[in-house]
TrEMBL record:
One GO MF term attached to the UniProt entry: cysteine-type peptidase activity
An example Gene Ontology biological process: proteolysis
Family: Belongs to the peptidase C40 family.
Pfam families with a match to the protein in the record: NLPC_P60 (PF00877)
SUPFAM superfamilies: Cysteine proteinases
Gene3D superfamilies, per the entry: endopeptidase domain like (from Nostoc punctiforme) (3.90.1720.10)
Name of this protein: NlpC/P60 domain-containing protein
Record lineage: Bacteria, Bacillati, Actinomycetota, Actinomycetes, Micrococcales
Residues of the NlpC/P60 domain: 189-331
Keywords: Hydrolase, Protease, Thiol protease
Source species: Actinotalea fermentans
Length: 334
């Protein structure tokens, strides 16, 4: 049985690598981004080949980097970036597309380049179904909302947890640093990836004022009495402790931790601490800290009654943007 499974995996990698080779030969030289076979950070060979096919297909169709990011997040949630021959009901392939719903024949949706082209849609779509480029205003949507507009999943928020990883994969795939930067894809450092992963494993955990220590969520006190969870600085302190960086307990003390000050949201990189204050000229009025995921997103424990979550489009938020006092790239985070 193990030999049969191993052979299936190898066959899947060969199919994906062949698809990638064909696509690489047809990519327009003016695209500015050469996509070649090879490893991708944090992905195995099969996943890396899948990711490179998706990016190559998107580049053929002049899909902007934000669209490539959405496609990678979607495929990771739907199939683990694997060309599956099974799924819910008749769902198949990288994007778990259903032949019975008009996405193509079973053979077509299991052809990686076809599946990616169908997901992107647009004028050159191989199917009549609505793809990403056919969704009005997709460029301004939160990434997970844009994915859901195509997939119509029973779990519409599930795509968000792959955002940080997808940014790292895209940055690794794109040879053009400017293209990677346009999607907020500055690659995370190894320690930042550890800290982000540590925080993300607690998505959905209740906010508890005073909650959280170096080992995880704890019983809060004051307004958090009776609730096991994290407050904002408890979450960031826990996450960075897993990467070997010890922070003070409160958001105001974390502002003064050793590191490099980041003055604009556009400069934030994955893992940077993000601070908010009532008076932008007075750090003693800081009331909240979160951790940047890059690309205008952050993970946070927001307030009583809420849960640990990912906040999208922070720079466009009428609440958060006016209160941004600065960020901090921690010493020891590179």
């Amino acid at each position: 049985m193990l030999a049969k499974v191993g052979a299936a995996v190898v066959a899947g990698v060969l199919v994906l690598t062949g698809a990638l080779a064909g696509l690489a030969g047809s990519l327009q030289s003016e695209s500015g981004c050469a996509v070649a076979a090879g490893p991708v950070v944090d992905l195995d060979d099969e996943q890396a080949a899948s990711a490179r096919v998706i990016v190559a297909v998107g580049q053929q169709r002049d899909v902007p980097a934000r669209g490539l990011l959405i496609a990678l997040m979607t495929a990771m949630q739907e199939s683990g970036l694997r060309n599956l021959d099974y799924g819910d009901r008749d769902s198949l392939g990288l994007f778990q597309q259903r032949p019975s719903m008009g996405w193509g024949t079973p053979e077509q949706v299991r052809e990686p380049a076809y599946a990616a082209a169908a997901f992107f849609g647009g004028p050159s779509s191989p199917t009549g179904n609505r793809g990403l480029l056919d969704v009005d205003g997709w460029e301004a949507m939160a990434l997970t909302e844009a994915a859901q507009a195509v997939q119509r999943s029973a779990f519409p928020d599930a795509y968000a947890k792959w955002e940080a990883g997808a940014r790292a994969w895209l940055a690794d795939i794109l040879d053009d640093p400017a293209a990677a930067a346009s999607a907020g894809c500055a690659p995370a450092s190894e320690s930042a990836r550890v800290a982000i992963a540590a925080a993300e494993q607690w998505l959905g955990t209740p906010y508890a004022w005073g909650g959280g220590d170096l080992n995880g969520p704890t019983l809060g006190f004051g307004s958090g009495a009776g609730t096991v969870g994290f407050d904002c600085s408890g979450l960031t302190r826990y996450a960075w402790a897993q990467a070997g960086v010890l922070l003070p307990r409160t958001s105001r003390d974390q502002w003064n931790a050793p590191g490099v000050r980041v003055t604009t949201m556009a400069q934030l990189q994955p893992g940077d601490l993000v601070f908010f204050a009532h008076d932008l000229g007075d750090p003693s009025t800081i009331f909240h800290v979160a951790m940047s995921l890059g690309g205008d997103a952050m993970i946070e424990a927001p307030q009583t009654g809420d849960v640990v979550k990912i906040e999208q489009r922070v720079s466009q938020s009428s609440y958060w943007a006016p209160k941004f006092i600065g960020g901090l790239r921690l010493s020891g985070s590179s």
